[in-house]
Amino acid sequence: MADCRICKSKTVRVMDFGKMPIANGFLEKPTGSEFFFDLVFVFCPTCFMAQLENTVKPEMMFNEHYHFISSTSKAMQEHFRKTAEAIIESASGKNDFLAVELGCNDGIMLRHVAAAGIKHVGIEPSSNVAQLARRNGVTVEECFFNRQTALEIAQKYGKADVICGANVMCHIEDINSVFEGVDALLKDDGALFFEDPYLGDIVRKSSFDQIYDEHVYYYSGLSVAELAKRHGLKLVDMQAQNVHGGSMRYYIEKGAARAVNTRVEKYLSEEKALGLDRIEGYARFKESVDRICQDLKSTLMRLKAEGKRIAGYGATSKSTTVLNYAQIGPEILDYISDITPTKIDKFTPGMHIPVKAYGNFLNDNVPYTLLLAWNHKEEILKKEDAYRKNGGKFITYFPKVSIE
Ligand SMILES: [Zn+2]
User: Which of 17, 187, 396, 399 could form a disulfide with 39 if both were Cys (CB 3.0 to 4.6 A apart)?
Assistant: First the structure.
C-alpha cells in the first residue's frame, strides 16, 4: 500500500483500472510503442484524501504537444469571466491589490482582470501556453508554484490579496509545497480560492472518467479542510460550480478565528452521508462504475449487432479512461469528432480510434453518437439540434446509460 502524499499514512485501494495510457497521448499512427501505467484510485482514511497511487512524470503529460487550451469552450469562457468579475469587485477601493492565479493557462480568466487595470500575476509552467496568456495582456511568471517561487513573487510584486486556481490544484503532486507557498504569499487578510472536479459529484454520478493520469487528487470538503489545517489555514466556504460535470470551489483564509460559512458544515455532512470519510463508502462507487461500463458496452454491442454505425463526440482526456476501461475501440466507434486542431487525424490513446474533424460528423448522418464530452451536454444538444431532429441520437452514460 502506498503512502498518502499529504499525511504519509497508508492509503487503501478503491479501484484498480489496470494499464492505462496517457489521457492526452493522442497518436500520429495507430501502431508502434505506447506508454502505459497502472491507474489505481486510492483513499487515505486518515486525512480523507482520494488520490492516484502512481503518477506519471509531468514531462510525459505536459509538454509542447499538450492539447488542453482553456478558451475553446463558450461555457468555460463565461464561467471564468464571472470569476474575474468577483475579483475585480473585491479589488475596488484597494490601492495595492494583487491577484495571483496558479495555472493561468491562456489567460481565459486573468485577461479580464488585466483589462480592468488590476495588478495581477499568472503562474504558468508551460511556456507555449504562457505565451498565449501574454498575448492576452496577462503578466506571467513561468514557474512551478512552491514556497521558494512564492517568496520570489512576493519580493517582486508584493503580497497577494487573492490567490486562485481552477483545475490546477488537482494536478500538482506536491500539494503541500503549494500550500506552503500560499501561506508565504498571502496577506494576513487575503484569501485562496480554488476549484477542481468535486469528489462528491464523482461518487454520486459514478463519473469515474475524471480519474486519469493528470488528476493526482480528487478533493472533497473533508480532505481540503484537513489539508488547510495542516498548513495553518482554514476552509471557510465552499461553492458548487456547474462546470466539468460538477466542480467545487473552496475558499481558504489565514487565521483560526475566521468565520466559517454554514455551507461548509452542510457539505461536510453530505460528504459523510455519502461515505467519503471511510473506505466502505467507496465500495458502492466501484460497483456502480463496473455496472455502467458493462451496460455501456452491451448497449453499443447491441446497436452494432443491429448494423448501426456509431460515432463519438469529443476526444476529451476524460474519455480515455472510459474507452480503455470499458474496452471500446474502433470496431465499435467509427471515429470520434473533435474541433481541436492538434487532435484531428490522430488516434485516441490506448484504443486507437481515429479522431476526425467536426465537418465529418456534420456530413455523416451517423444514427448514434456516444457523447464523450458529456459535461458539455447542454451546450452540445443545443448545437446539434438539427442532428437530433433528423433522427440522430446521443448516448450518455452518467449516472446511467441512456439514449436520447
Ligand atoms: Zn492522508
Answer: 17
Residue 242 alpha carbon to ligand 1 centre in Å: 28
Max Cα-Cα span within the chain:
68
- Read off the pLDDT band of 61 (50, 70, 90): low
Grouping H, G, I as helix, E, B as strand and the rest as coil, residue 36 is: strand
Cβ–Cβ under 8 Å, residues 404 and 394: yes
The residue with cell 482582470 is: 113
Residue count of the chain, please give it. 404
**Centre of ligand 1 from the C-alpha of residue 78, in Å:** 35
* Cα-to-centroid distance, 41 and ligand 1 (Å): 14
Whole-angstrom Cα distance, residue 42 to residue 213? 13
CA–centroid distance, 177 to ligand 1, in Å, is: 15
Q: How far is the CA of 332 from the centre of ligand 1 (A)?
A: 41
- Which residues sit opposite 157 in a β-bridge? none
- Type of residue found at 325: Y
Residue 230 DSSP SS3: helix
Percent of the chain surpassing pLDDT 70 = 96
Query: DSSP letter string over 139-170?
Result: -EE-S--SHHHHHHHHHHH--EEEEEEES-GG
Distance from Cα 23 to the centre of ligand 1, integer Å: 26
Computed over its alpha carbons, how large is the radius of gyration of the chain?
21
CB–CB of 296/267 below 8 Å? Answer: no
Q: What is the CA(45)–ligand 1 centre distance, in A?
A: 7
The pTM of the full predicted model, rounded to 2 decimals, is 0.92
- The whole-angstrom separation of Cα 32 and Cα 25 is 13
Q: What are the φ and ψ backbone dihedral angles of 122, each rounded to 5 degrees?
A: -100, 135
State the distance from the centre of ligand 1 to the C-alpha of 293, rounded, in angstroms.
29
Distance in Å, CA 5 to ligand 1 centroid: 7
Spacing, Cα 60 to ligand 1 middle (Å): 26
Q: Delineate the domains of the chain, giving CATH numbers in brackets.
A: 70-282 (3.40.50.150), 294-403 (3.40.50.720)
**Ligand 1 center from residue 19 Cα (angstroms):** 25
Distance of CA 173 from the midpoint of ligand 1 (Å): 13
Neighbours of 299 (CB within 10 A): 18
Question: What mean pLDDT is predicted for residues 250-270?
Answer: 92
